[in-house]
Amino acid sequence: MTGEFLFRREDPLKDMFVILDGHVDITLEQNGQPKQLYVLRKGDITGLLPFSRLTTAPLSSSSAS
User: Fold this and answer.
1) Looking at the predicted structure, is the pLDDT value of residue 20 above 80?
2) Burial environment of residue 57 by CB neighbours within 10 A (0 to 12, 13 to 18, 19 or more)
3) Could you say which of 23, 30, 38, 40 has the lowest number of CB atoms within 10 Å?
């Protein structure tokens, strides 16, 4: 799944992801270029959690490996 997006900025948040292998880059686009903010690794969780008030993704997330 390398290079594919789990979600993009402004996507509706409706899923939760558990990273089983590899890593996922969390990015924000600045001046037309993605800026890496942090990296999710094996065992990390991202996406909508039951207590979240977010309705759309504030950042983008793509699998890197």
Assistant:
1) yes
2) buried
3) 30
